[in-house]
Amino acid sequence: MNLHTKMMMTVLGVCALPLAQAQVAEFEDYGNVVRVKPRVEQIREPRQECRTEYVQVPVAQQQQRGSGGAILGAIAGGLLGNQVGGGSGRAAATAVGVVAGTMVGDKVQNDGRPVPQAEYQEQAVRQCRTVEAIESRTNGYEVTYDYRGRSYTTVMPRDPGNRVRLRVSVEPEMNQ
């Protein structure tokens, strides 16, 4: 080996000496849990609330009744009644002719179709609205534990129970 290589090896050895002396010792132990407090956060989540109501809707009429036949029948019946009666009975005969003519004219035009009555059908109507739901979620636990007469507090993802597992490290103090 040449001199340059020997010098480099010596320098590296001297530099590594403090690292070799400053060893850290680690071991596991347990601490007693004094208090566990859940960390709860409130989360707002919009959601849909829907309901179905049933409403009455008029049904469309297929065919409407006509009134032209009744009008023509009333005129014809009135003229015919006016020809039949005489004196003061003529007015009564005309009135009876108008009523009878109206009925006959309506029957002829509408061919016995029933008088339309309002028909209704039940229809479902869905109504929705957005409401804000507030949900509470636990996002960790604040754990206070005792180890060798001292109290420590940390946040953990779950409740550890009565005792907590600890990783303890010990290293010498370097005051030289």
How would you describe this structure to a colleague?
With 176 residues, this protein is of the alpha+beta class. The protein has a domain at 62-117. Helix content is 33%, strand content 44%. The protein has a four-stranded antiparallel sheet with strand order 3-2-1-4, with no helix packed on it. It is rod-shaped, with a radius of gyration of 52 Å. The mean pLDDT is 78. This is Glycine zipper 2TM domain-containing protein. It comes from Massilia polaris. InterPro entries: Bact_OM_lipoprot/Surf_antigen (IPR051407), Gly_zipper_2TM_dom (IPR008816). Residues 68-109 form the Glycine zipper 2TM domain. Keywords: Membrane, Signal.
Helices and strands, with pairings:
Blueprint: H1 3-21, E1 25-58, H2 68-84, H3 89-110, E2 120-147, E3 150-156, E4 163-170
Antiparallel strand pairs: 1-2, 1-4, 2-3
Biggest beta sheet summary: 4 strands, antiparallel
Gross morphology: rod-shaped
Query: In order across it, which strands form the biggest sheet?
Result: 3-2-1-4
| Count of beta strands | 4
Cα gyration radius (Å): 52 Å
Number of separate helices: 3
The proportion of strand residues reads 35-45%
Q: What is the CA–CA distance across the termini?
A: 36 Å
H/E element sequence:
HEHHEEE
Output mean pLDDT. 78
**Category by helix and strand content:** alpha+beta
Question: Unreliable stretches, pLDDT < 50, 5 or more residues?
Answer: none
Q: Helical proportion?
A: 25-40%
